[in-house]
Write a structure and sequence with these properties.
about 10% strand, mainly alpha
Amino acid sequence: MTIPQLERAAALATRLMTLAPGESEEAMTALAHVLARQPATASVALDATCARISEADRLVALSIACAVLAGRRKDPTDGATRFHLHTENPVWARNLSPKALIGRYFYYAP
């Protein structure tokens, strides 16, 4: 991987740690696929959730991020581009049918 690719993987891993602490590898993989399809942000701030993540879990998140970006992990969302927690009901999702429920998130594909 090049330096920009590693930076993108690190940013993706940080987002995974923030959005999916304690989730299974399948759930993190699903989330990583959707996040990887979204526009990249220049920097991602570590929040309080990330500060409590163990080193082992950080490495798992980075490994998943790298594998997804390299195309080595199948997309369990089947092309989803949006998601939300299963405990929420955002306005944009009210008339849509989710494609999948993986971990704590519903996933929607166009």
